[in-house]
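Input chain follows. Return structure tokens only.
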Amino acid sequence: MIIKPFHPFPILETERLSLREISDEDDHDLYEILSDPEVALYDYFYPVDSIEKTHLFIRRYHSELMANDEITWGIYLKTPSKLIGTCCLGNFDQDTLRAEVGYALLQSEWRKGYGTEAVGKIVDFGFEQMALNRIEATITPGNDGSVRLLEKVNFQKEGLVRQRDLIKGQLVDGIIMGILREDRG
């Protein structure tokens, strides 16, 4: 059985980052992330065009958390304190002790190692605190930066699933990447 220690919200720390719950006060920083067409390019959502739509994301994060369906952390720089991204665990499968990870990062913070740092910490949380056996991610072909990020935290490419996801009205293939508890070393 997957242990879901979501209450109180688990705050995770790395050397440069604090991973914690996103609140309404983060709406402008989250809007900056979610309104960027490059950030949304390979994801299911269209770039948001208003603070109100950003609040819908915040409410969805909260309702998924309350239902124990998904936990979404805000990725905050410690210095200066600023929300620069999101990272989640969800799609839990109790029988196989499996979950999926997903993330989005402010474009100006790409290629600085923040995504690798955040995903690595959340993978550790999934294995150590939730008793997961497997964490996977599905990457849209062409999103090479995301593939590299996952490879840095020991995910392995496992295959291509044809027409797996609906991205902005189009069925697209998905590169399946995964990591097992035993892969963490």
